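Duplicate of #3305? Posting structure anyway:
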């Protein structure tokens, strides 16, 4: 049954209250990494190549580490909902204790993931020399990796506390802190690269040191902001040595499939880029430009996905399955409206959209990119939908299901379709993107089907009467 317009608008406003700060925070984080890239580019092509290699390795491990603690927000949202709906002081106190236990376990898991990721970062930095990378680039990247590795731990602490604040539906401080970190990062980059104001001149390694310091400062800022919040402070327990083993195992079991999903998605897009690269530098430049546009817009989908996921966890904890079902429709309607506007801009003004990425003299790349924008206008609907689908399943605590579906959609459908369309039908880069669209569409449909089935199963469970007691 279609949702009444008034209900849709009301639900959209409620969803936007959480989604907008999260989406803006994601966009600010994109600006943070862009600042590093600009600073590297000012140092020359080799510095950009070396720094870019280090950032790719760091981002891959950071993304998977973030996946490990992403489910914390859902668990906190469910526990907070139980606390609000509790009809006795004891039940309310127990739910609050559950939140504190989740915070401790989240910080413990972030610490373990950060230590493992830092060690892997250094090992991978040495191993890439065996993958055909230029020796001078690898040597220049190593100091950056060494400097970035310690920063992974406060980065994941920040993410753990972030998930706590999001689960409590109080994410407002995240945006201010992330915006401030952009300015701090730019200043630290400049000071540490060039050795101004009496600081040591670190060159390219200064970007790595700056990254670690910014993550540490951001973590401290979020912690201070949280302890000053009268609603959050009583529940923020950082004594990780008191972590419950059962809670830590539960979060690990939920987080590992999310980390694997993030890693699988990053690997899929990396392979797609390699496939496009076989058609020449103009094709790769066009792909890079359009892919960056899609990535920027994708941050809106991330905000909607997180907000829908948190709200689904909350509604299910309160036993409101119909509201959880309606949340899916509201999130998809909001995403569709945004993607329609963005897609129209792609179609109406492609040269204006591509201008920041491609020089007007690069005629071949612009021609290819203009065609890709037409595909991207459609692709973004499915890209946004599949991200929301993963979030919805996370609200059901079905993180393994999301991982399995994305494996099928990305690797079993999308990648073969991209190769067949590109090579057998001689569509080249356009074929790769049509295959990418096919994979994302299949993933989106499979995720939504799984979510609908999961809600139907929950609904049956709540309707089934309790078994009669056994006869004495």
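Output from current build:
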């Amino acid at each position: 049954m279609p949702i009444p317009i008034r209900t849709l608008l009301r639900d959209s406003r409620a969803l936007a209250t959480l989604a907008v700060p999260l989406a803006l925070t994601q966009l600010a984080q994109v600006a943070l990494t862009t600042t590093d890239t600009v600073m590297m580019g000012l140092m020359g092509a080799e510095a950009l190549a070396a720094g870019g290699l280090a950032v790719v390795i760091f981002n891959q491990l950071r993304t998977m580490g973030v996946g490990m603690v992403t489910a914390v927000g859902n668990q906190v949202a469910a526990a907070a909902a139980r606390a609000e709906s509790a009809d006795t002081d004891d039940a309310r106190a127990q739910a609050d204790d559950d939140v504190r236990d989740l915070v401790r376990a989240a910080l413990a898991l972030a610490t373990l993931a950060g230590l493992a990721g830092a060690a892997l970062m250094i090992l991978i930095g040495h191993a890439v020399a065996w993958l055909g990378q230029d020796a001078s680039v690898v040597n220049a990247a190593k100091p950056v990796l060494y400097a970035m590795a310690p920063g992974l731990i406060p980065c994941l602490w920040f993410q753990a506390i972030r998930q706590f604040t999001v689960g409590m539906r109080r994410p407002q401080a995240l945006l201010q802190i992330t915006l401030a970190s952009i300015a701090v990062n730019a200043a630290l980059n400049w000071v540490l690269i060039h050795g101004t104001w009496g600081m040591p001149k670190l060159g390219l390694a200064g970007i790595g040191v700056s990254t670690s310091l910014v993550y540490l400062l951001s973590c401290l800022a979020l912690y201070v902001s949280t302890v000053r919040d009268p609603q959050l402070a009583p529940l923020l327990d950082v004594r990780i040595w008191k972590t419950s083993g059962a809670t830590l195992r539960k979060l690990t079991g939920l987080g590992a499939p999310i980390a694997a999903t993030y890693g699988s998605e990053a690997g899929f897009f990396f392979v797609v880029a390699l496939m496009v690269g076989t058609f020449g530098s103009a094709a790769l430049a066009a792909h890079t430009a359009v892919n960056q546009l899609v990535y920027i817009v994708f941050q809106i989908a991330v905000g909607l996905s997180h907000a829908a996921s948190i709200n689904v966890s909350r509604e299910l904890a309160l036993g409101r399955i119909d509201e959880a079902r309606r949340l899916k429709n509201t999130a998809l309607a909001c995403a569709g409206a945004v993607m329609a506007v963005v897609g129209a801009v792609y179609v109406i003004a492609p040269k204006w959209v591509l201008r920041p990425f491609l020089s007007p003299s690069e005629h071949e790349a612009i021609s290819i990119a203009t065609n890709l924008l037409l595909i991207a206008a459609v692709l973004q609907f499915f890209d946004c939908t599949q991200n929301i689908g993963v979030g919805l399943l996370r609200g059901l605590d079905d993180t393994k299901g999301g991982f399995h579906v994305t494996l099928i959609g990305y690797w079993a459908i999308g990648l073969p379709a991209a190769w067949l369309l590109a090579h057998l039908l001689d569509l080249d880069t356009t074929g790769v993107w049509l295959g990418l669209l096919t994979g994302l569409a299949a993933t989106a449909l499979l995720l939504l089907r799984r979510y609908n089935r999961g809600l139907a199963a929950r609904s049956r469970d709540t309707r089934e009467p309790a078994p009669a007691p056994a006869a004495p």
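Confirmed duplicate; merging threads. The chain has 14 helices and no strands. The chain has a mean pLDDT of 89.
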